[in-house]
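Support case: user asked for a sample of complex input and structure output to validate their parser. Sending the pair below.
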Amino acid sequence: MTSEQLITSGRLKAFIAEALMKAGLPGPDAESVAALMTEADLQGSDGHGVSRLPQYVRRIKAGGFNVRPNIHVVREQAGTALLNGDNGMGHLVMKRAAEIAIAKARTTGIAWVSSQFSNHAGPASLYARMPLAHDMIGLYFAVGNANHLPPWGGLDMLLSTNPIAAAIPAGEENPIVLDMATTVAAYGKVKTKALRGETMPEGWMIDRQGRPLTDPKRADEGMLLPLGGMEAGYKGYGLAMIIGLLAGTLGGAAMGKDVIDFNHDDSSVTNTGQAIAAIDIAAFGDVAVFKASVDRLIRDFRGSNRMPGVDRIFVPGEHSAATRRARTRDGIPIAPALMRGLDQVADELQIAKLASSVA
Amino acid sequence: MTSEQLITSGRLKAFIAEALMKAGLPGPDAESVAALMTEADLQGSDGHGVSRLPQYVRRIKAGGFNVRPNIHVVREQAGTALLNGDNGMGHLVMKRAAEIAIAKARTTGIAWVSSQFSNHAGPASLYARMPLAHDMIGLYFAVGNANHLPPWGGLDMLLSTNPIAAAIPAGEENPIVLDMATTVAAYGKVKTKALRGETMPEGWMIDRQGRPLTDPKRADEGMLLPLGGMEAGYKGYGLAMIIGLLAGTLGGAAMGKDVIDFNHDDSSVTNTGQAIAAIDIAAFGDVAVFKASVDRLIRDFRGSNRMPGVDRIFVPGEHSAATRRARTRDGIPIAPALMRGLDQVADELQIAKLASSVA
């Protein structure tokens, strides 16, 4: 009840896998999803890891996920594929999408795989990172699973926080990994604030009268501000729309008013769309030269002069890499409210609680 | 001296072409660049059209552009190419890059062409729009030609405003065209403010002590704020870095401290990098269905409820389409300071002035 508990990643992964399996997923699929959800928690994507488990289990029980999906390619060209997820869990769909993109990019230099009838897949960076091991750049675009953003100047929620992620390999340095919602704050961050009982800073959300909204428990009454805020939010709005068109409309997935709010609807087919691109660095030049250039760039940035009060200059992905190291060593912190929710999941599924002493 | 003069697009194009030819470009190349520069002015990209002509002419004279470039493919795969611009004008290089991307995407579904040894090519949207006529989506990324942005928390200018553009075809509606710098304001806008003798709003730039800078004539003393501003500028910073890696580093072009400030250096080879991607809509589904979906989305946005005081909801590209219609009809406004600069160019090259009555 009082403070965060630290859970090892091994225990967390086993708990998630057992829960998903008990809820109805085949063993290998449960293992795949659990591994990706745990990876999300390890890297600090707290709004997209185990905190989603209660909702996922509820959705499986309500028939909102197809637990035996026939994930299949609907159309393809040498450098593209349209992957129908058959309403399976998004993690499974986008893991497959990344594998296809990587295989295709090996021969064409670049490949793009769009999904349709997919579902929420966790943090965008999980999939953008997958090409890294193949000396490829990964780009990922997704339509978020609930609309919290109106068109610029509007009141109707027709857009989600539609995230973009990019992962670029380095040599000795950590890869550069950007993962950002096109709003000032991701909705997952709002949910995390609510779980922790904290208030939001001004500038994350406004209410329908345009006044700042800082109580995350009142999030349903407000809307997120697009990146750029009151000043240049039309840019974040434009990005959110383009990403939605690329990740949703292009693949025949939901976008705009067709988006299902999966936080309030456990059973409707969401027809979620995502897209992943893999770019083979070797198609453009020597991989070692490229990686050395990225290392040099990172070091130039890190070594540059700083504003008063700034201790260190970071590049995208350094915070998550540090979090991954710390949580691998110390465990993953689970907030009391989340632990109560997970205990309830364990009770319902009749499995051992997360913090129990089972291996 | 007193107010803006209106010039027809035909006259503007002829003037630019004559100036570039007199300065040393072969006729067909001068015509190509003039057409693209005029298109920039027609769509309202005032910082990237004829306002750049004095600088371009100066650069040609100083030997900073190769006026007889051998623009050639260095490497290619089925879906990719690396195009060496041989230090020719960027318009010529990126027009060629777009043509290659479109041709390749027709067979692979997606193609990506990176440039190296290119130069400033005008507004990003010019090239992102090129795939539209082929029922393709265009994406464009560029390393800007002067660093005005430090890493987040830093003071050294290691990044440019690195723009991103995306163009998506619609059916009956105008295409959706986003063209944005990853800073709150593009540097071209700062230059336009200076030309017009106007001040900048707070939030565009800060000085090295972090104080707002609003005098565009003092721009050299300050730095642009990345998209997101003081609140979430690390996102705009991350985007600028990723775009720079994609458009510059991937193709072996300049990025970071290697970027030449072409506003203050007329002769060094800039090794500018840009990248264009073309995505064939037919690779993912029926083109007519896609376009109808985009139309519906635009109309849903336009017809949605508005904040108090908002007359109309726009989607990206509507403003520039309206400007193109108005300027095609009424002419392109040339501010007095710019006209004086163009008159000087005309005198130096011994050609008729822009506003003279020649056809």
